[in-house]
Specification:
The protein is built from six helices and seven strands. It has helices at residues 27-39, 90-108, 113-118, 120-130, 141-162, 183-192, and strands at residues 2-9, 14-19, 48-50, 68-75, 78-85, 131-132, 135-136. Helix 2 crosses helix 5 and helix 4 packs across helix 5 (141-162).
Length: 197
């Protein structure tokens, strides 16, 4: 199971944090602890390490005291870190980090730290397309991108339909609201029987 997904910069400032297990102590303390573990490692060492020192911070859902492992990858000025239990494959999680980064790259065209700062909601949405409740849902980058684009299109259509000043189809001003009725008009029609079926 995946217990946490974190992205922080080389200074240790968190840019995305998502916990799938209850936190026993401060989230900031946990992020600082993980940063100290990851940043102190030499670049020639492997990208995963056992982390028994994190067990007091994260309580697994089933509470059986599983051993925790940190799997991370560094891209430019960002660390992508997954905290998992020992049942997860380290290479599989490294692959999952790659899928996450590729999905972010596709959404932001070469993702950078500022994209995560200013579009944190979209970054969380991409993560939720990949992982839910600590379990992997999707690993196909094309499917993830399609789902994110559909959600963005639906959000844009929702905003446009909720905006009374937006121009509807046909290009005529006010054509969007031509068939719409006010709540008072609808109620009056119902009371007089005009709109009754």
């Amino acid at each position: 199971m995946i217990h946490a997904v974190l992205i922080f910069n080389t200074s240790g400032v968190p840019r995305l944090t998502k916990f799938y297990s209850p936190i026993e102590q401060s989230a900031q303390t946990l992020v600082e602890k993980i940063y100290s573990l990851v940043s102190s490692r030499q670049s020639e060492l492997c990208n995963f390490l056992d982390a028994p020192e994190l067990e007091p911070y994260l309580k697994p859902k089933d509470g059986d005291g599983e051993k925790l492992r940190v799997v991370y990858r560094s891209y430019a000025t960002l660390y992508f870190v997954f905290v998992v239990d020992i049942a997860e494959s380290e290479l599989g999680i490294l692959d999952l980090i790659q899928v996450f980064v590729e999905s972010l790259d596709n959404a932001f065209e070469n993702v950078c730290e500022l994209d995560l700062v200013f579009h944190f909601d979209e970054a969380h949405h991409i993560l939720s397309e990949i992982i839910q409740g600590g379990l992997v849902l999707e690993t196909n980058v094309n499917e993830i991108d399609r789902a994110v684009q559909e959600a963005a299109r639906a959000r844009k259509e929702s905003f446009a339909s909720a905006n009374p000043l937006s121009l509807g189809g046909g290009g005529a001003v006010g054509s969007r609201s031509a068939g719409l009725q006010t709540p008072l008009g609808w109620l009056a029609g119902r009371l007089t029987g005009v709109g009754a079926r």
